[in-house]
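hi! just following up on the protien thing from before. the input was this:
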Amino acid sequence: MAEGELADEDRVRLVQELCGAGLFGQAEAMLDDDWVRRSGSRGYLLRAYVNALKGEPQRSREAVDWALLSMQDDVPGRLDLLCLAGHVLLALGDEHRALAVARRAAADDPHDWRPPVLLADAYVELGRVPQGIAAARRAVALAPHEGEAQLALARSLERYPQGLGRFGEGARRARAERDEARQRASVLGAEGETTRRGRLRAEAVLRVVLVVGPLAVMTVHLWWGLALVVLVHAAFAAVVLLAHRRRGGRPFDRLQAARAIAREEWQTDPVRRRTAGLGAVALVPLAAFATTGIAAAYGAEGRLWPWAGVLAAALASLALLALGAALLRWWYGAGFLRTAVAPLRPVGWQPAVNAAFAVVTLAAASWPGAVGTGWWLALTGLHALWAVGGMLGNAVRQFRVARLAAG
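and the predicted 3d structure came back as:
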């Protein structure tokens, strides 16, 4: 038995050395099916690791699935295996499943520093920077002399300015804490890439392309702007689907994993519940502007739509609200609107404001002779004010919640 265990350790060490030398084919040849099955989760995860380095995400993902399925509660080194599985999933771009695995690892041993590091990296990759910072701080508190924990804190704090503003006292404290964590990691002998400025610039450009660009075109020509919105977002969706295919995963599986995480979190975490509620209504004011607001704008130009057209715009506004509510119920569960959105005053009343705009616009179109272009101009201004002010107010509320969560 001892000789067999030693042989297994030698095999693992040799595979790691071959991977380090870039000899992935030889490393994979060391992991024959019999040895992998005999080694269980450990063998499957080692195969997943090699396949990920070889650039074969589908085979790597399948090996991770087999490892998690065959992992017993009493398997030796279970925590190590879970953390390795989580990091492989992160490398494959499957952040939601990595987050679920990290939570399993944290539940197994709340006093080990490695699960919080995995949690921090998963949260940051999902764009949830405050939770990532909190998890990394927990890892450092559990093991202040572990360089990897310090690096995880530096990585998470590197993303702080992106989500919570580059200026202000909070951002200055975050930068100071990040630099201190980097220095401690270097003293402890940990090396790693902690800057993601290229990625941050790319994400900033993406936000401009997806949001600011179409809105700028819309101010010049409404229909060209709307067409650009559809075209840009369709292209973005195609790029996302292509990326998933290259990583070897199915987008629907990723969607299901993300939905499971979302449903669990808003029910157990009050901060996440408030964040999700604010996110649910973030674009509600824009729905009124994109429907009845357009009809009012044409009325202000003296080209009022026929009554049937205004009715279609009003119904479209209400249909968008109904569609949004249905999607939220599907994503978060039946009780989400009642528990997480309705209590947010005055945010929870925003759908009622959209409905009021629909009713007023339709009523004005019912008496076209009694309503002049000045009235339609005022109604268009109210739509625009509601769209800009409402979305800005929602963004400010989300900013405050995220800043409080980041500490």
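Residues 90 and 221 are 43 Å apart (CA to CA).
Residues 373-406 form the longest helix (34 residues).
cheers
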